[in-house]
Sequence to fold (200 residues):
Amino acid sequence: MSHSASPDRLNVFVRGLADLLTREPDEATLIEQGGELLQRLVSHDDWLPDELSQPDPQRYQQYLLHLDPQQRFSVVSFVWGPGQRTPVHDHRVWGLIGMLRGAEDSQAFSRQADGSLRAEGNAVRLNPGQVEAVSPRIGDIHQVSNAFDDRVSVSIHVYGADIGAVHRAVYREDGSEKLFISGYSTPPSTAQRQPAQHES
Fold:
């Protein structure tokens, strides 16, 4: 199925979020109102260019859609091939995740007294049009996977920084950290590809 680009929807979202951030809201207000803006965006699947929704058979892709000139936020399309998943990881900034196509499962983790990580509750299923939030304040460590083994899923992620340049961590079973910088995926139409590292 071909999805023709309708960039006006993305531009409206970007302008709305930029205006919201200019008012310097507290995090709870930002997540609530920013989440409403993102929900409006992902309620329509007619705007994301095909080249920014292409999967890779080896690993999930993260394509940069917009970087705020002041680096207050970035907008990224995450493209999940069948069965693909992230390692357990964090973000270290606020984030909003909106499901555009398919579905994804997010399993939250919490740190225990001995430093290890434990899965917290059941995985949350995100379906098209739905939005969830992460942040160091409300919960920032999770693992995300494509809910399907036979189809591609696409989600739109918004972070409170240039997420491709943020120093973050993936986590081993014992809770120890491995630091990384994710970067971004290069669209397949570009001759040279530089796949991103672990993130969501």
Notes: Residues 7-186 form a domain with the Jelly Rolls fold (CATH 2.60.120.10). Residues 1-5, 191-196 have pLDDT under 50 and may be disordered. The chain has one domain: 7-186.
